[in-house]
Amino acid sequence: MTPFGEHLRKLRDERGVTQKDMARAIGISPAYLSALEHGKRGQPSWPMQQRIVGFLNIIWDEAEELQRLAQLSDPKVSVNTADLSSQATLTANLFSRNIGSLSEADLINIQTAIETRLASKNRA
């Protein structure tokens, strides 16, 4: 599942809307909507995001969050370390090969460490 798919499912469930009804309303198949929610499809296009936002009738902040999550929801990530250090290449490969064996707590700790570092770097 992707962050976008998880959030989309939550929003749809909160409104009591079935996949079939939502899919019909935004002009896609229920299978495609299910694939989006389960992370089997890549990032939805901007027009698709707009149809989802319109259908769910969500406010600006919520719409921006859904769009932010869409940008972070590519299930087939590729990391190009060609111009980076050997340590960056080693870390990227180690993470890629072992992500499936990490716990949710491990992943949250890694995410938090990265976000904390980026926030302190942006403040400087």
Describe what this molecule looks like in 3D:
- With 124 residues, the protein is mainly alpha-helical.
- It folds into two domains: 3-71, lambda repressor-like DNA-binding domains (434 Repressor (Amino-terminal Domain)), CATH 1.10.260; 86-123, no CATH class.
- It has seven helices and no strands.
- The chain has helices spanning 3-14, 19-26, 30-37, 46-56, 60-71, 86-98, 104-123.
- Helix 2 (19-26) crosses helix 3 (30-37).
- The radius of gyration is 17 Å and the shape is elongated.
- The N and C termini lie far apart (35 Å).
- The mean pLDDT is 93.
Please summarize what this structure is.
With 124 residues, this protein is mainly alpha-helical. The protein has helices at 3-14, 19-26, 30-37, 46-56, 60-71, 86-98, 104-123.
The CATH class name of the largest domain reads Mainly Alpha
The name of the CATH architecture of the largest domain is: Orthogonal Bundle
User: For the terminal residues, how far apart are their CA atoms?
Assistant: 35 Å
Radius of gyration from the CA trace? 17 Å
Question: Based on DSSP secondary structure assignment, what is the total number of beta strands?
Answer: 0
The oligomeric state is single chain
Q: Any idea how many domains?
A: 2
Could you estimate the helical fraction of the residues in percent?
55-70%
Q: CATH topology of the largest domain, which one? A: 434 Repressor (Amino-terminal Domain)
Which outline best applies?
Answer: elongated
